[in-house]
Amino acid sequence: MGRQGNTAWVWAVVASILLGATSRVEALDLVFPAPAEVTASRSESAATQRLPTGPFADGALPSIVLEGSVALRAFRLPLDGASTLELMRGLRTQLEAAGHETLFDCETDACGGFDFRYGMDVLPEPDMHVSLGDFRYLLARKAGRHVAVMVSRAGETAFVQITEVGTETAMAAPKPAPLPLAVAEPASPPASGLIARIEAGEAEVLEDLVFSSGSSVLAEGDYASLSQLAAWLTADPARKIVLVGHTDASGGLKENINLSRLRAESVRQVLLSSKNVRADQVVAEGVGYLSPRVSNLTEEGRQKNRRVEVMVTSTALLAP
Questions:
Q1: Do strands 282-286 and 240-246 pair parallel, antiparallel, or not at all (unpaired)?
Q2: Is 76 in contact with 158 (CB distance < 8 Å)?
Q3: Which candidate in 105, 217, 235, 271 could, as Cys together with 188 as Cys, close a disulfide (CB 3.0–4.6 Å)?
Q4: Residue 38: which region, alpha, beta or left (left: phi > 0; alpha: psi -120 to 50)?
């Protein structure tokens, strides 16, 4: 952001405070450094919401579970050369000026990367985009309300999600929310290779899957990875996974996000129709070309980036 952009941002924050921080910020009428479009929203008058209170580590995401009114809003705005850090600083300044106490904040790797992002309740793409290489999270509290802010970007476009939970009770003691852990059971296949890695909390690429460029259809074949996943899932209905589709960098972002989700869904349908896996055990998502593992400048690299990854989201450990 240039000097004029910085000045405008500072004066916008000052103006919001001088014009009545309590009334404006209490309604979370936060000031952005550029015109912001509301892309999606969700609200409930009485619901339960889980908010991260620490980084993903040792297979768990520390969280607080709150009950009360819940509202989620997603915004999109131009960055104009600014960084996600500058954007988050401005929002944090306004929250703190209105009396909110910051409980936790982190950025990308310090948050826990992939596992942190997929352990959060995030409004769906393309309305709310979270880049796995550049995002920031903030949790703040004021009497009777918690506010969580997620900031990310795609090129020169910023994405912001604000989650508000209104409660009448004090914050519950933070407790870990176990995510990708598992308990070995006699009926399960041996914990080796793919299964061992996902049970250890890793996001694992299903290397044997084949997609052509621009196609969402999984090529015909007998894929060992899907047979292993199916055996592991059918051994215990409490086990759940998310399939995350990825594309190469050919084409636009919106089209690639849709294509990557369709690829993940194609794999999901094979598990359901051919492997007898229950529908509620598998979720399909897509992030397009936003998380490449190698360069897209060669055909070999583009082939590697056209992939589907799997991670565990629930296991027998979560069962009562």
A1: parallel
A2: yes
A3: 235
A4: beta
Q: Which 3 state secondary structure label does DSSP give 206?
A: coil
- Give yes or no: residues 209 and 173 share one domain: no
Can you tell me the distance from the alpha carbon of 231 to that of 16, in angstroms, rounded to the nearest whole number? Answer: 57
| Burial class of residue 64 (count of CB atoms within 10 Å of its CB; 0-12, 13-18, 19+) | buried
40-46-51 Cα angle (round to 5): 65
Residue 266 tokens read as 């194609």
Q: Give a yes or no: residue 157 inside a domain.
A: yes
Q: Global pTM? A: 0.51
Share above pLDDT 90 across residues of the chain, in percent, rounded to a whole number: 42
Which H or E run contains 94?
helix 84-97
Domain membership flag for residue 296:
yes
pLDDT tens-place string over residues 84-126: 999 999 999 999 988 899 999 999 999 998 889 888 899 988 8
147 plus 251 within the same structural domain: no
Q: Residue 232: which domain range?
A: 193-318
Whether 44 is in a domain gets the answer yes
